[in-house]
Amino acid sequence: MLVVSLNSEKKINQKLENSVLVSLDSVKKTYEDGKISVRALRGIDLKIAEGEFTTVYGPSGSGKTTLLNLIGALDKPSEGQVKINGSIINELDRNGLALLRRDNIGFVFQSYNLIPVLTAYENVEFALKISSSNNGNPVRNSKERSAQILEQVGLGDMLDRRPNELSGGQKQRVAIARALVKEPRLVLADEPTANLDSKTSKEVLEIMLEMNSKLKTTFIFSTHDPMVMEYAGRLLEIRDGKITREERR
Amino acid sequence: MYLSKIALRNLFRRSGRTLIIAGVLAFAIFFAIILETFMAGMMEMSFSNIIDFDSAHLQIARPELFADNEDPLDHLFTPTEEVLTEIEKLPGFVATTPVLDFSANMLAGREEYPVRVRAAAPASFKEVFRYQDYLIEGDFLQAGDSGLVIGMNLAEILDLQVGDFYTLLFREEGGSLNTIQGEILGIAATPEPGMNLGTVIIDQSFAASALGVSSSEINQLKVKMTDRHSAVARSESLEKQLTGSLAKDFQVNSWRDVSDMLVAMEVWGQLETYFIVALILLVGAIGIINVVVLSSLERVEEIGMMKAMGLSEKQIVKIFSIEASGLGVIGGLIGAGLGAVGTYLLVNIGFDLQLLYGDITLELGIPILGTIYGVWKPQSFIIFFTLAVTVALISSLIPSYWAARKDPVDAIYHR
Amino acid sequence: MKDLFKIAWRNLNRNKVRTVIAILAITTVVAIVVFSRGLILGFSDNTYDLYIDNNLGHARIIQSEYRNREALLSLDYGIDGFQGAGLENMLLEIKELEETEYIVPRLKFGALYGGQANEMVRMAGFGIDPVAEKRHGLLLEEINRGRMPEEGNEILVGVGLLDKLKADIGDQVTFMFTNYYQSLQGRTFTIVGVRESGFSEFDDNFFYLPLTTVQSMLGMEDQATEIMVFSTSRDRAEELEESLAILFQERDGTDNYSALAWQRTDPILELFLEMESIFDFIYIAIILMGTIAVISTLKMIIRERITEIGMMSALGLKPRDILKIFTVEGALMGIIGSAFGVLSGGLINLYLSRAGLHVQAYADTISGMDVLVEPAFYPVFNLENLLVSFILGATVVTITCLWPARSAARLDPVTALHHDS
Ligand SMILES: Nc1ncnc2c1ncn2[C@@H]1O[C@H](COP(=O)(O)OP(=O)(O)OP(=O)(O)O)[C@@H](O)[C@H]1O
Ligand SMILES: [Mg+2]
After folding, report:
1. B227 lies in the same domain as B335
2. DSSP code of C70?
3. Which is nearest to A104 in space by CA: A185, A170, A26, A33?
4. Confidence (pTM)
5. B2, B4, B8: best mutation site toward chain A, by most A Cβ within 10 Å?
6. Where is C379: in which H helix or E strand?
7. Does B150 share its domain with B266?
8. In what order do the strands lie in the sheet containing A242-248?
9. In a 3-state reduction of DSSP, which class is residue B171?
């Protein structure tokens, strides 16, 4: 009896732990830039559960990008602890971070960052192939999956176009498809709509929302556009490197 | 797979730049290949001139004859049937001829010039050497003639013509001075400068009586073979045979033993080629580093994204080094292609040395005259192509690693 | 102009790595040029001086027909002065010439030594004027034991010849020779000195006697076979040749004698001199290969700043100014690279000019050839070489940079502004 109850308690705890995908514990980030040091983040405590659709907003220079970089395991905190999917990133080396990102996180950036010599389709498939080429077992039906996800973001007829033959919105959709094709636990998007007009922005956000509900992918994105904030499930306001307001909808 | 796809497409992104750097590598390879075939052609020519006019492929004599400062008349021998059959049994044997060399002073009018007199058996001499094909005046010797065939340079400085009388002053076996006299029979202009000035040819039976030796006594047997490369090894086996089973005191030298200076020249030429090629490749290597650095700077954001996606540093290095190797391959192919065209021209049309040097080769005493023809050397194509690709690959590693180490955050935001 | 340099300097500092690599490329090629120029200069200088000191002088006077007969050591072509008035007089008149610094007359003849065991040693003898030779200095320098022959039957022999004669200083040797009248003579000499030049051709075959002794024993009073005339430097050889020609014309009136500047006396030297001019093209080609890095860097800089260029020209900056900005940037890389190249190449040359570059295969080749060349390389270290290489590097780079700079200057402001990188 006792054993059983202990076991079940453990399970519940595990479940709770499991459902928390990202946790930040009094995280500080200071940039040492020659003589000046910039305190970009001044103590952030944050837990993000699986499946959440979170928006970080705040004025320019408030630390949004810095925060997303830490959550995305692109950077390490100066103080405090960042835990992603159970791994403490403070303890990982460059290669460990790369592996963590590869297996868990998709990225979308304001500047798209597509690989110009690859077609839309190849850009997406490439993301799948990276993982396969590293751990040996090839991803099955990568072709179908890549084509299918591009279909889902509405680019079914543009598979063979190179990035310079696509509009900004189309590029960003390719970037989203690329971030999602691996079906990562977490997708980070730093101002994904900053270069797009409001109509295209909406389309891109709709797609992200749809993916969020369909695939249960956790989304965190930053913006300073009030219109974009409408879409958030959870809204975090950040000012001067601190979370100043939090709101769930 | 994707890594090479990206690398190769990147290669054509700045096709101008790619082409120029590949051009430097191509130039290095082209240069090396042409220089090598040219040198090989020159060597081929020099060696075959020495062989065809002076040394033949093999020479058999008493060991003392090959030592310096020895009087050649002290080391005569009569070739026995045994020895001759042994020589004829050699694989690749073509012909053999007896030769009796000795030194004398050639007197003409008030002048006198030291020469090497080569007493030859005219019939077999023609089978081993090509001297008789290069007469510009008069005729070659007949057996029993008292005449003399001389080179054109000797004819010039002594002002001799066919039909003029000559006197050869020499020291007999006993030590007393003696002379041979007769008529100039022919004048030869051979491609081997040594034979044009310092050597005269006389009939062996006539010379023997003048020297007071038996007509069967000679001091060298010259042997012509089918192929000069195998002749070197044959010389050793023949010497073993003669000294071993026949227990005769003979030394067998190949053409290579008498062409020390040419062999050294060959090595030197090769060193020179490699040195120049190394310098050009050094410039090429810096060009490759330049390309990799510029490309990585141009593609900072791409690299950042790749790192964000979880590409390892090794994979990024791979992209750049495949690209650089591609440059090496393009340069290598262009260079090898041009090299092939150049070699083809050199092999079929040749290059007239007079254009480059004027008459100088005569004065240098190098046995090269006339037109040089190239030689196909497949191994130099392979060597230099591989070299170019290797240099490209190796010189790309450091800058690639430098590019791959970039912090992903800095790269994405292009700081 | 000062502003231009400031702008250029800042731009180059924008990305140090690529600038450094472009500069490194120039450094390398300029260093290669400095090194090869030094090497070739060293090689040819050495060779020229060897020929000049041993054989040619700055100008060499012989009987015109002697040229083809020299190998025979013929005595038929003695120089016996203008219209037969004697060598001494002729030398005095040559000495009067403005270009003449000093004169070295020699009388060359063949001799034999009959040693033991029937062996015959063939030799070439020189009658030398001890005073003139001392002024010239070469023999004096290369006498490794004993002294110069001054008078009578004193003889100086090459170190290899000494070996063949199996004799030593103080010993007597008897040589045979034919005099001018074709009669075979013998004479005994006392060895007073040994020459070691390092060249087997000289050391194994040559001996030296006082000129007056040779003249009297050959029956060629007041004659020589060759006269080496020296001016203050080898660069004045042509003037010297000209004055000699005029003198011969005036005093002799025939073309019995020829006086040739050293450059024209030996076909091998003519070949070397000709090759030197070919090398200038090779140097330029080497530098051009290095400019590739500068050009591609410059093109990238231009590409990056294409909107900036559009802006500048929209603001009214003239294409000329844009051309200047980028040319100065390229030139700056060229100048810095060339400076480092000259520095590193100069250091290599400085070191090798002392230590020498020894290559066995080369030494083997040389020893088999009939040429006077040192069997090791000693590159020349001199400022002229550094300066020329620097100017060559900086100029070639600057000129090639005009090409990308021109394409920047020609950009249409509208396309430049809307450029999407
Ligand atoms: N690498 C760096 N070195 C020095 N300071 C930095 C660096 N990166 C960011 N900062 C500083 O840290 C602070 C936070 O920057 P961050 O990029 O996170 O702001 P942000 O909220 O994303 O702004 P924006 O909306 O303009 O993108 C800013 O003051 C910025 O100047
Ligand atoms: Mg930001």
Report:
1. no
2. G
3. A185
4. 0.80
5. B2
6. none
7. no
8. A105-109, A186-190, A218-223, A53-57, A234-239, A242-248
9. strand
Q: How many residues does chain C have?
A: 421
Judge contact between C224 and C127, C-beta under 8 A. yes
- Write down the pLDDT at residue C115: 65
> Contact B136/B261 with Cβ under 8 angstroms?
no
Residues B188 and B235 in one domain: yes
Interatomic CA distance for residues C104 and C107, integer angstroms: 10
CA torsion A173-A174-A178-A183 (nearest 10°) is 40
Q: How many beta carbons lie within 10 A of that of residue A86, not counting itself? A: 11
Q: Tell me: do B187 and B44 sit in the same domain.
A: no
CA nearest to C183 within chain B: B110
Average pLDDT over residues A70-94: 92
Q: Are residues B80 and B34 in the same domain?
A: no
Cβ contacts of C167 within 8 Å, gap of 6 or more: C157, C173, C191
What is the average per-residue pLDDT within B124-144?
A: 89
> Residue A138: pLDDT band by 50, 70, 90 thresholds?
low
B38 & B171 share domain: no
Chosen domain end from B254, B281, B315: B254
Is any Cβ of chain C less than 8 angstroms from the Cβ of B280? yes
Domain that holds residue B109: 57-254
pLDDT at B289: 93
Residue C120, judged by CB atoms within 10 A of its CB (0-12, 13-18, 19+), counts as: middle
pLDDT digits (tens, 9 = 90+) for B256-290: 887 777 777 777 778 888 888 888 889 999 999 99
- Tens digits of per-residue pLDDT, B148-177? 999 988 888 888 899 999 999 887 766 677
**Closest residue (by CA) to atom 24 of ligand 1?**
A60
Inter-residue contact B172 to B87 (CB < 8 Å): no
Write the residue with the smallest CA distance to atom 1 of ligand 1.
Answer: A31
3-state DSSP assignment of residue B118: strand
Compute CA A153 distance to the chain's CA centroid, rounded to the nearest angstrom. Answer: 17
How far is the C-alpha of C417 from the C-alpha of C414, rounded, in Å? 5
Whether the Cβ atoms of residue C64 and residue C257 lie closer than 8 Å to each other: yes
* C-beta of residue A123 within 8 angstroms of C-beta of residue A181: no
Q: Are residues B179 and B317 in the same domain?
A: no
Nearest by CB to B310, from A75, A98, A113: name it. Answer: A98
Q: How far apart are CA C339 and CA C154, in angstroms?
A: 57
Q: Does the CB atom of residue A218 touch ligand 1 within 6 A?
A: no
- Which residue is listed with tokens 């090894």? B233
Q: How far, in Å, is the centroid of ligand 2 from the Cα of B140? A: 98
Q: Which fold has domain A20-248?
A: Rossmann fold (3.40.50)
User: Sorting pLDDT into bands at 50, 70 and 90, what band is B381?
Assistant: very high
**What's the CA gap between C94 and C88, in Å, rounded?**
10
Token pair in block for residue C39: 């090497």
Domain end, chosen from B200, B226, B254, is at B254
Interface test with C, best of B211, B274, B290 (most C CBs within 10 A): B290
* pLDDT average, residue stretch B359-384: 72
Taking the mean position of all CA atoms in its chain, how far away is CA C240?
A: 19
Of the partner residues A102, A115, A122, the one whose CB lies closest to the CB of residue B302: A115
Q: Does A133 touch chain B (CB under 8 A)?
A: yes
| Pair (B283, B232) in one structural domain | no
Partner-chain contact B1 A103, CB within 8 Å: no
Within an 8 Å CB–CB cutoff, is residue B398 touching chain C? no
| Domain total in chain B | 2
User: Beta strands of B90-176 (E only): which ranges?
Assistant: 93-108, 111-120, 135-138, 148-151, 165-171
Tokens of B216: 């069967």
- Does residue B118 contact residue B151 with C-beta atoms inside 8 Å? no
Closest residue (by CA) to atom 3 of ligand 1? Answer: A31
Q: Give pLDDT, residue B361.
A: 47
pLDDT at B387: 92
Using CB atoms, pick whichever of B308, B313, B413 lies closest to residue A107: B308
